[in-house]
Amino acid sequence: MRIDIATDSRANLIGSIWMIASMAGFAIEDAFVKAVSETLPVGQILILFGLGGALVFALVARANKQPLFVQDVVSRPMCIRMFFEIIGRLFYVLAIALTPLSAATVILQATPLAVVAGAALVFGERVGWRRWLAVFIGLLGVVVILQPGTDSFSALSVLAIIGMIGFAGRDLASRAAPATLHTSILGLYGFLSVIIAGVAISVWQSAPFVRPDAEVWLFLLGAVLAGVAAYSCLMKAMRTGEVSAVTPFRYTRLLFGLAFGVILFGERLSLEMLVGSGLIVFSGLFILWRGKQAKAAL
Length: 298
Known about the structure:
single chain, about 300 residues, mainly alpha, 2 domains, about 80% helix
């Protein structure tokens, strides 16, 4: 028994490290995208970023002798997943480009709350009144950050909310995605969705193509590598240790995002943002804890 406990503890520790590395990678990706958005239109960023990520995952899939297309790719859950991926990526990148990075990062942390609510409404999962209360408290945290009805409210903040809803829908659809699809294939079609999002916003904005200079190409490369590395670390984290022990470290992305916003882009953190962040993180951790308690009672 002691050996099993020690093994589980070590696996949880390793999984937590992978999760922290993943969140750091996603925050670095966001910072690069934010920097590039000062030069390139959002649609072009999405297209180039999507092409780079899709190429990497396609090479990984081929290296593992996996076909790039199978019938399950066009299954209904995968089509729904790609739709929400497009919504999430498009509006979150718009939020990064047009609003403070710190604010967009904080609002994104409400995604697990939306996933819990969606799981109850879509999949009929049992969610007790305590977890529902936690969901509403977390959403209250989002309201505190947005400050609707005040002079501090910016309609552009809604972009991050739509992006968050898109990512929540993607995560819910991933639960129903065929188990036969390997992680690299999910990554490939996830990045192909980014390209579609880029084409859509480019057509809508009719934005001219901007020739990137060497620095912009370097930032784009950094965003692609950070995004692919973060995605890979996330998959390793979710497959190492207990999900309930590893998942709470998702919130370290909040710390990285706030730090990058303040240090790299000179953003200021308001009291409302800090209070709202606290409510979101508290609610998310409480939901994870209640879920663990419910499983233990079975």
